[in-house]
Amino acid sequence: MSAVLTLDHVKKVIGGKTIINGLSFSVREGEVFGFLGPNGAGKTTTIRMIVGLMDISEGDIVICGKSIKNDFTGAIKEIGAIVENPEMYKFLTGYQNLLQYARMHDGITKEKIREVIELVGLTDRIHDKVKKYSLGMRQRLGLAQCLLHDPKLLILDEPTNGLDPAGIREIRDHLRMLTRERGMSVIVSSHLLSEMELMCDRIAIIQNGELIDVQTINEFTEQATAAFAFETGSLGDAATWLKSDWNALMMEEGFSVEITREQVPVLIKKLTAEGIDLYGVKAVAKTLEDRFLEVTTK
Amino acid sequence: MGKLIINECAKLFRRTGTWVMFAIVIIMILGIGAFLKYGEVNNPPQVNPAWEQELAMQLEADRAALEETGQNNATLRMFYEREIAVKEYQLEKDLAPETGVTLWSLMSEAQAVIGIIGVFTIIIAAGMVASEFSWGTVKLLLIRPIKRSKILLSKYLTVLLFGGLMLTVLYTVSALVGLVLFGMPEQARPYLAFADGEVVERSMFIQLIYNYLLSSIDVLMLATMAFMISAVFRNSSLAIGLSLFLMFMGGTGTMLLASKFDWAKYVLFANTNLTVYFDGVPPVEGMTLAFSIIMLLIYFVVFHLLAFFVFAKRDVAA
Ligand SMILES: Nc1ncnc2c1ncn2[C@@H]1O[C@H](COP(=O)(O)OP(=O)(O)OP(=O)(O)O)[C@@H](O)[C@H]1O
Ligand SMILES: [Mg+2]
């Protein structure tokens, strides 16, 4: 599969401070690429450089074979983006806002605008002033704005911010549809890590402006050991060996322990042999979030 | 470019503030009209029977002044020569000075409103770029397949369009109000202009358009400056504050400087009032119309170079 976006040793220095330090990765055609990192890692800064809002101090960014540095208009044509919050002209209606952006690209028909409005589910409210929109509606309008010109690459900086669960699900479905049916590639940065798990094919983790890892979502979660919560009666002396041999964490009604699936029946047998009442065992799947914290706090 | 200007106009005219500005201009014209009408009703105009003698006396005084000061001051000499030529022409053609209130009085008085238009145009110019930053919309504006310089140009042209439209409204509305309140003057009075050592008669309508445009030059320069500050510093309060301060204080300050230093003629505000070359005295002796026009052009180009260079280059971190 060909690369839609390539970052090549990208560096950004602002006021003598290196904010992005030699970032390199590629986004393939038709994939949803997650961009993960704690606050201040440099996600937004990287996105600003990709869309040409900020100059690149060193290295290059290439979109569909066109460098954003040397061929800005050619490269940016292929991109639809939301950078941080999708701020719109509040004194205009949603429709008038979309018209603003439609006039800045070639060949966007009224029909196309209507189709996009329908896709993001704003048909009923599109003629209301944006100042009357809720945050979620503004997110939808932001999404509509980046789909108008059928870009090859969609860049969404925290697109689920402010959406209700139904809205988040809808965005997810849209992204699936756009990547599957139209072959778009998508970059998503998000703080809702559990969301990333459901949305992305691959994720890149950055911290302090450096790339830590790029992995497929499966690789990423598989590397996490699972945790199990045991609901028991009084543990008595068992607490001692549970702590020392199994590294268990005592809780109010039992304990939790990090073990593999195969070890679960072994431990259950041992507990029943000791005459401890066992009420239930629950797998506490380690989320992407735990894995993420594991990786970034190393 | 056309579509970009449509975009800017849509943003401008869909805001209530813009319409309030137009309303204020129209209300001010009506106010001036009412004031003039009130004066006319209370003091009906009378023809001064002795106007020829009075004009002749003024002419004598002008000639004496020319003798006295005209020797060593070229600009004063020009001023008196013009005064004398115009007065001689009036006596010769038997053109009594206007006494009543006419359409022309209103249109001429209405030029005072150009100052207000200046304030409004500066406010619009100052907000053009800076507002996009404070609204945060600049991020969506600059990720289009359009060069930043082109977007900036469309914004500047929109400022010019706004200023031009305001002036047109001022000119036509004051003409209409004048027609309604005072009617058309019975005989068309020409304006006596002094050009190339000769007095020529000019249509009042044309002359007023000249005057409007001449008085708009400092508005144009200040709006351009406000636009530049807005594009460079991305802060509309700074752009409005500085430009309005200079608008009100720049002229006075420059006159003070001009009385002491010769280099004051290079200051922007020494050159914005081109009417001095037609019926007044330039601030520094030896200044000519050509000099002022060149200075204005230099300032104009510098403002634009600054605005375009900084706006096209700087990172957008809003
Ligand atoms: N204009 C700027 N000048 C100086 N430093 C900046 C500027 N913009 C960002 N930074 C710094 O760059 C680093 C990365 O910021 P960035 O906004 O890219 O982080 P982020 O990953 O998007 O964080 P968040 O998750 O909070 O959105 C931060 O340390 C920030 O302080
Ligand atoms: Mg961010």
UniProtKB/TrEMBL annotation, chain A:
Molecular-function annotations in GO: ATP binding; ATP hydrolysis activity
Keywords annotated in UniProt: ATP-binding, Nucleotide-binding, Transport
Gene3D superfamilies: P-loop containing nucleotide triphosphate hydrolases
InterPro entries found in the cross-reference section: AAA+_ATPase, ABC_transporter-like_ATP-bd, ABC_transporter-like_CS, P-loop_NTPase
Residues making up the signal peptide according to the UniProt record: none
Domain ABC transporter span(s) in chain numbering: 5-233
Family the UniProt entry places it in: Belongs to the ABC transporter superfamily.
Protein name: ABC-2 type transport system ATP-binding protein
UniProt source species: Mesobacillus persicus
UniProtKB/TrEMBL annotation, chain B:
Record GO cellular component, one term: plasma membrane
Keyword Lipoprotein (UniProt): no
Bilayer-crossing regions: 12-36, 112-135, 156-184, 204-226, 238-258, 289-312
GO terms for MF: ABC-type transporter activity
Keywords, alphabetical: Membrane, Transmembrane, Transmembrane helix
Name of the protein: ABC-2 type transport system permease protein
Species assigned in the record: Mesobacillus persicus
Top-level taxon of the source organism: Bacteria
